[in-house]
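Dear support,

I submitted the protein below through the web form. The confirmation email said the job was done, but the results page showed an empty box. After a refresh the structure appeared. I'm attaching both so you can tell me whether what I see now is the final result or a partial one.
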Amino acid sequence: MKKKGGSLGFVRRGKLVPEIDKVAFSLRPGQISDVIETARGYCVLKVDEVKNPVTEPFEAVKDQVKERLLLEVKRRNINEFRAKAMKEAGVEIYLETPARVKK
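What the results page shows now:
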């Protein structure tokens, strides 16, 4: 975003933090929002253009859908394998905050 001069480009509903998403999709082209407060700071939005969603024919996207589903299955299998292997090996992970060093 910084490299694009603050531009978010085109975004889909539900892909931004809720505070920004709500405002972004309530504006019409050319409108500028009030200041929006989020957990990460403040921002102001300007909507330049709105595109209507397009539905692609299945034949045009079936290879992409197949790849995405296969990747999802692979990730799930890897995660299940890792969890089982760690349990069988008796691996335990402890996350602790390091003690502060006194000066």
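Response: this is the final, complete result; the empty box was a page-load delay. The CA atoms of residues 22 and 35 lie 13 Å apart.
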